[in-house]
Amino acid sequence: MAIRTLDTLGDLAGRTVLIRCDFNVPLQDGEITDEGRIVASLPTLRALLEQGARVVAISHLGRPKGAPEAKYSLAPVARRLEELLGSPVAFAADTVGEDAQRVRIALQDGQLALLENLRFDPRETSKDAAERAALAAELATGADAFVSDGFGVVHREQASVFELAQALPSAAGLLVERELDVLSRLTESPERPYAVVLGGSKVSDKLGVIEHLLPRVDRLLIGGGMLFTFLAAQGHGVAASLLEEEQLERVRGYIAQAEELGVELLLPTDVVVAESFAADAAHETVASDAIEQSRFGASGIGLDIGPDSAAAFADAIRGARTVFWNGPMGVFEMEAFAAGTKAVAQALTEVDGLAVVGGGDSAAAVRQLGFADDDFGHISTGGGASLEFLEGARLPGLEALGW
User: Fold this and answer.
1) What's the rounded Cα separation, in Å, for the pair 372 and 46?
2) Model confidence at 113: pLDDT above 80
3) Is 384 noted as a catalytic residue in this protein?
4) Helix or strand (DSSP H, E) at 98
5) DSSP 44-86
6) Known catalytic residue: 202?
7) Which of 97, 208, 353, 384 is catalytic?
8) pLDDT of residue 1
């Protein structure tokens, strides 16, 4: 069944519309350090405001413990929204309390309000469906429609994602529509060759996506901390590098399956090994089968793919027509260990076809390394939601919209 879209809600002029956004942005000393998710929400917000709707945006930020915490306030997001939209954004100091009601009642046609962090209310993430439904009912009071536009949370069964979509006439926003269009192309009709690039710290975070996509891809490239479990599965020593021993047998199965399917499995041939996990740590590049022979011996830690591997990965990416990338190749936050991630990002900008950056750390990495969002075919706002979609997992927030 096709997902319900904005046009199914009819004329929204003068109507109060709740919109679930994903404003879970990183903050440092109260300043937003990556506004990608805010910018991604603007097309839907503008579409609603231009219709003359009275728009009430809701979101979470961080992981508060079900009570207000100043460091997780959405106030900085409200200020940045005002700047980006060029119009006032009313901010409520609570979510369903007196201030939220005051702000909502005062809204005029074509105006926007943002309510305080949803997760300041423990019912938002409660395991009890009745508690979540009670919060959804309070949020829905006085509203005429609900728009779900926070793709990064559609894999969560939470009050503002699942129950709220059932409490009001509901539809997907433009951001969710775009995400579904792109991610569906990755699973249903990818142009070939199709390459998937996976990194990040743990292979256990990517087991589902490897299992689901392995029969569908032509090339699988493995970097980041997870590469060491693959190297260990091949019998290589990895010194003090990150290793998930409990996943070795499963990884051996993936290696064998790739060979059986004719999938090209690219593992790094060289690795940047450091003396310690520090930005200024002494380091050297060694062959991936000689990590324990680095000058740091058994205490050496692999923190990036090496230059030969980066070049090989870039060639494999540029030669594909469809590419999905999730997870950095190394500790990109440290300049000495960012080269592998930067090489992969650069190669994605040169793909003659669809190149998708899979959200989370990958999205943060490309922006930190100086790339613009429009350098890529698509930067997902999803992170975990994108991976679960590609795994074929159940996504409650989409089910509630008719998907």
Assistant:
1) 22
2) yes
3) yes
4) helix 98-106
5) HHHHHHHTT-EEEEE---S---SS--GGG-SHHHHHHHHHHHT
6) yes
7) 384
8) 52
